[in-house]
Amino acid sequence: MSFFDKIFGGKEENPERKSFWKKIESSEDLSQAIEASYHHRIAIFKHSTRCFISTTVLKNFEKEIDGLNDKPDLYYLDLLEHRLISNKIADDLGIRHESPQLIIIEDGKVVDSSSHEDISVRQIV
Question: Domain of life of the organism in this record (predicted)?
Fold first, then answer.
């Protein structure tokens, strides 16, 4: 990664996600996540891998999650790699697209959504 990419948010090289994330990489993955919301509250973190702010927010959120004894059901979406799924989330759930974005879903419906500095683990626990 170049110096400017580090400052201005170039694409992450070999991003390692924490083990608690369940990746959403297909419409089927999204359907399974929504189905899980009928059993317990879930969260989807939409992340832009080219955005320094999104990366910072994601790292801070992961630190918060690491501090929990019981980890909630968390889903991760690389919205640059899976733009169509990101659009599907906005359309199907009637929510405005933002990045970074944490969407809390319960019983198949959005119960909370936040972006940027408003993203916090308190929304899901």
Answer: Bacteria
Cis upstream peptide for 15 (omega within 30°): no
CA distances from 117 to 36, 68, 102, 112 (A): 27, 20, 11, 15
Bridge-based pairing of strands 21-23 and 109-115 is unpaired
Longest CA span, the chain? 45
- Beta strand pairing status for 73-78 and 109-115? unpaired
Q: Residue 67: count other Cβ atoms within 10 Å of its Cβ.
A: 8
DSSP letter (8 states) at residue 16: P
pLDDT by residue (tens digit) across 61-110?
999 998 888 888 999 999 999 999 999 999 999 999 999 999 999 999 99
DSSP E strands, 1-125: 21-23, 42-47, 73-78, 101-106, 109-115
pTM metric for this prediction: 0.85
Block residue for tokens 């004894």: 69
What's the token pair of residue 102? Answer: 């944490």
Please give the structure tokens belonging to residue 3.
């110096």
